[in-house]
Specification:
Bound molecules: flavin mononucleotide
Number of helices: 7
Structural class: alpha/beta
Helix content: 25-40%
CATH topology: Rossmann fold
GO molecular function: FMN binding; oxidoreductase activity
Strand content: 15-25%
Distance between the termini: 32 Å
Protein name: NAD(P)H-dependent FMN LOT6
CATH class: Alpha Beta
Largest sheet: 6 strands, parallel
Number of domains: 1
Radius of gyration: 17 Å
Order of helices and strands: EHEHHEHEHEEHH
Organism: Cyphellophora attinorum
Length: about 210
């Protein structure tokens, strides 16, 4: 029997309050209820819970081939968590036309742990968080990560709606059958099935 692929669902926001955790739960619930794939497990990677310190080295991660050589215990733990994953669902918000600093910090702690692995994006924002995804693709290209063909971009219906619900981190009811982003479920499942396919392709280190 094939070993199930381990997929990390990475919540990029550490804002309090926030909606990133609800978006991640929506993506995970959609996959579990609608994907016909069975050979996977989903693991939430919450940067708020990880509370990583600001990256200050001392190592340059690209020079670290053996995680035992990271000076800080927390980096070794973070390395193990990311190494364990075969692929990722990144759930980024958009801050000032880019992805949040918490996510860049988490990425920069490591290098080879990300190398060549596949990613899909479930982003959210006023216009769906597309600018955030665009930036992330540039950065993750440093590790030759593979992207699914489409991105899932969840836009707010109006600024007023966002002001009332999103900014205050209110319950958006995303686990209910009918919700503001219910129409994106098929896209989430399609990208997830593609993501799983990419995890099965051989990873070739080119650097
Ligand atoms: C510092 C900051 C900058 C923001 N900039 C943008 C932006 O450029 N585009 C956008 O769509 N939303 C922007 N927003 C609104 C976010 O989409 C909204 O706050 C969202 O809830 C953030 O995700 P989170 O709740 O998971 O932290 C910004 C919010 C903050 C706090």
């Amino acid at each position: 029997m094939a070993i199930p692929k381990k997929i990390g669902v990475l919540i990029g926001s550490v804002r309090q309050p926030r909606i990133g955790d609800q978006v991640a739960a929506f993506a995970a619930a959609t996959i579990k209820s609608q994907s016909s794939s069975t050979d996977y497990t989903l693991h939430t990677i919450d940067l708020l819970a990880w509370d990583l310190p600001m990256f200050k080295g001392p190592e340059v991660p690209k020079a670290i081939k053996d995680p035992a050589n990271y000076t800080h215990e927390r980096t070794r733990e973070w390395s193990a968590a990311i190494s364990a994953c075969d692929g990722f669902i990144f759930v980024p918000c958009e801050y000032n036309y880019g992805y949040p600093a918490s996510l860049k910090n988490a990425i920069d702690h490591l290098c080879w742990e990300w190398q060549g692995k596949p990613v899909m994006f479930v982003a959210y924002g006023g216009y769906g968080g597309g600018k955030s995804v665009e930036q992330l693709k540039g950065v993750l290209g440093a590790f030759d990560m593979k992207f699914t063909e489409d991105d899932v971009l969840l836009g707010y219906p109006s600024f007023e709606w966002a002001g009332e619900k999103v900014f205050a981190g209110k319950d958006l009811g995303l686990l209910e059958e009918e919700n503001v982003w219910a129409g994106h479920r098929d896209a989430i499942v399609k990208n997830f099935d593609e993501l799983l396919g990419l995890t099965r392709a051989p990873v070739i280190a080119t650097k």
